[in-house]
Amino acid sequence: SHRKFERPRHGSLGFLPRKRTRHTFGKIKSFPKDDQSKPPHLTAFMTYKAGMTHIMRDVDRPGSKIHKKEVAEAVTVFESPP
To answer: Distance between CA atoms of 63 and 73, rounded to whole angstroms?
Structure first.
């Protein structure tokens, strides 16, 4: 009959404080390996996760139960600056 069992924590302390961020820019966490033989090119592109929605698509997977059937799938919507 300890509080640990009667009222456990809801969520991780790593996400505290729960408030809106002061800065609205993202962060690129990894870049591909640099190939010196190629000319300079775009290696990363900043986008923001705008939300999620769903799509209906036909499955082309022979041997599967859902082969040639329509299924709903979750998709992520990204926004990128011009």
So the answer is: 20
